[in-house]
Amino acid sequence: MERDETKAFYLGLDVGGTHLRMACADSEGNRIGEIQKTKWKPEEGPRVAMKALILSIYELLNKEGLNKSGLKGIGISLAAIFDRHSGAIIKWPNHQSWNGYPFKKMLQKEYLVPIILEGDCNCAALAEGRFGNALDDKDFLYVNIGTGIGSSIILNKNCYIGTNGFAGEIGHMRLTEGGATCKCGSIGCLQAYASGPAFMKRTEELALELGEEIVITNVEQIYAFKLKGKAWALNAVDEFTTWLCMGIGQMVMTLDLTVIVLGGGVIGACPKLIEEIRVKLDEWVLPLNRKIEIRSAKFKDDGGIIGATSLVLPDARKEGLHEAISNY
């Protein structure tokens, strides 16, 4: 493709544990070309993997006929805990060699442009609020239900991050004393009961209690067995949705939110769960004069990259998408 030396553009990166997603957009937010997905290996360590990331960016620019000189900003969705001031990684589960790595600083050495890092769940929520199924809503709660449970609080179109930058950790709300141990080390977290792996594990336990030994490899199986009338599957779905509604319901009651957007692999695989969640939440909140609307996420796997790109668009500063914008 012929290179445009003068065209201004913005880059979004969705940095996950096994794949990179990358996309470019113009100043109006219109995507330039397609979202590029590529495998990468952070387990090789930051020195090797960062070189691969930078190489992948240049390959994308070459593919789209864009010049580095036209790059005006980089927004990054990162599945790790990071320092919002320095951009260094504090903790990356399963990739401990990255802990302490100055991610933003090293990327900025290569590209002398504003860079904003944000959590993957917050980026997905921003995508829904700016371009997706919460476009017309000023306030909403985004909940991602997959390997873990994450959430993002959008207030007045802004991503609320809290004092320490960790607002919205619904997955680590303690809902019961004793009980299951969460991967965070705490006891009784919502994530220990209503994440995808917890849902599958509990289904196997309930089946065994009723005399059936079965291996569950995905949540679609559970819902299929529920539709066949299997008692243990019915019980598993009931338990799963009850725990989930306890967590979401507390957020609704605390923040007086009326719109809930659900995303993640569990909802993507079993969208019919949304109606069951809606019914249970209504039973709780309607008597307390709360009315809620539950929607599925529009962007599925692309929410992170769309939200990341939106962080650095020109109107992001004007809208004040979140506090990091003031720290260019």
Strand and helix map with partners:
Layout: E1 9-15, E2 19-25, E3 31-39, H1 46-64, E4 71-78, E5 81-82, E6 89-91, H2 103-110, E7 115-119, H3 120-131, E8 140-145, E9 149-155, E10 158-160, H4 191-194, H5 196-209, H6 219-227, H7 231-255, E11 259-263, H8 265-269, H9 273-285, E12 293-296, H10 303-310, H11 314-319
Helix pairs in contact: 3-10, 5-7, 6-7, 7-9
Domains, number = 2
**How many β-strand stretches?**
12
- First CA to last CA: what distance? 32 Å
* CATH level-two architecture of the largest domain: 2-Layer Sandwich
Strand content: 15-25%
- Helical coverage, percent range: 25-40%
Mean pLDDT: 89
Instruction: Assign the CATH superfamily of the largest domain.
Output: ATPase, nucleotide binding domain
| CATH hierarchy class name of the largest domain | Alpha Beta
Strand and helix order:
EEEHEEEHEHEEEHHHHEHHEHH
Q: Structural class of the secondary elements? A: alpha/beta
> Radius of gyration in whole Å, from Cα?
21 Å
Within the largest sheet, what's the order of strands? 3-2-1-4-7
CATH-derived topology of the largest domain: Nucleotidyltransferase, domain 5
Q: Number of helical runs? A: 11
Unreliable residue stretches = 317-328
